[in-house]
């Protein structure tokens, strides 16, 4: 016999509502109660994602995580952690890839999965503040990653400006004087690259150095191939940099490969810092210095936000997740 | 006004059934007809994944792709390609991660997503032939990757035995005589590692060389950390290998890092071959020689299988996707 929500409630001596709150990860359950309910769930082999559906219309136990690219190591890592964090709350995550396509982002934003899921975790690329303002779908929504001037939407991100400033300051503190930035995206709607550029410039200014347009290298995408090409361009310039801050680890790993091809030793002649702390950078030779966003915390905060929206209607909230600079062998 | 299937059929001058066949990527539509229907779909801005649902009960325009780890570069790459291949057929893929957990694999196998999706592409880790034989859910299902003795289930995979034999033969042809295999998984239910070991041994035997248990290194998982540790173990042995065939690129990249830490030059003192052709291996220094499964073809074949099951009931089919050895700088 399959255990029902009611069976768990009886077994734990609590209300059906309380079991539901535990299953859905809502915050306002006392830890002792939560523990008792979880013990009953385990004892009865209760499967929340099927049975919770009967609680009220629209409760499916499923969440959507919408990302531009599932094969970007950063998003793949974040997705795997989000799946596990949700699993711990009895929720299942379905991962969806938009390729950053504006139409697909818009359709998802406006409820294309509303009948399937209880909430959407959304990492937008092409979505504009106007798209967000025009949203009428009421499925709980949390944006992941930075987005400029987002009205009326919950939001979890790290402080990209501060992180980029720290990464650049780390290079300057080591005595580097010509620090390039690889990852500028002048035509992108995504705010992340813009904020990392702001942090980079702020560090230069704080050190009394001018910003130099020749050292701010635009890229098409944030992939290895782009970093590889950007590094070759920089090394071809009349006055090459002695350090590079790359806006993603993928860019930095492409740049590292290019430096190797040109016989430029890292870190002696060229220091490199990436961003994202993907596993790849831990095993490269030399291992990559990088900014590590706390991805487990981002996943947990995002789930907290969804649960809070479902339980406590109120104004949208923004939460900043922590990050830290991991110094390895490229600096 | 939202375009309906019927509108597309009228616009294209074909039956609703034909539009549905095009939308679902069924094979038995003449190319000219397919083209005409696609033009009408584009002209009317028809959204198959919503409207196709009205065609018959259970048609959602959604597919599930179930993988053990979304953050494994191989599965992330395969997932991204599958999403795009499905997109080209007007279908949406939801990606789900099992962590190779036997219970979750079993629940998905037995219909945990049956009400949401039209088909399941499933890369199992812990599933046994008995689990498959016990399946009663009728949602179209295609297994991705090797699985020993799978009864009654469609199947798309590369020839892992042949691929591993070629990778090992490539090392032997270069004059290497002590070729290790990293990636043996004696306790795993997954057949992939077993088949790659079979291919490795076959190549040794064909070259008149004995197999040596000391050169067959078991690993816990197929990740970078496992390859890193395995390589250190091999280099600590009294008679280290002059070449290593790793069963995944992740293992090989971990091994490459370990070789660098020990000052063992690659490829001169140690040649390395990986498996999977993940992007990471294209940008490592030295770039990784690897077996490249045709992932686009795997995705396309898997979708063909689903469409075929939906349109033409019949006995299960197995299809082999192509692979090739990419020789780069580690050999």
UniProtKB/TrEMBL annotation, chains A, B:
Pfam family, one: Peripla_BP_3
Entry-linked SUPFAM superfamilies: lambda repressor-like DNA-binding domains, Periplasmic binding protein-like I
GO molecular function, a single term: DNA-binding transcription factor activity
InterPro entries attached to this UniProt entry: HTH_LacI, LacI/GalR-like_sensor, Lambda_DNA-bd_dom_sf, Peripla_BP_I
Compositional bias segments (type: Polar residues): 309-321
UniProt domain HTH lacI-type: residue ranges: 3-57
Sorted UniProt keywords: DNA-binding, Transcription, Transcription regulation
Residues covered by region (Disordered): 308-331
Protein name, as recorded: LacI family transcriptional regulator
Organism: Actinokineospora bangkokensis
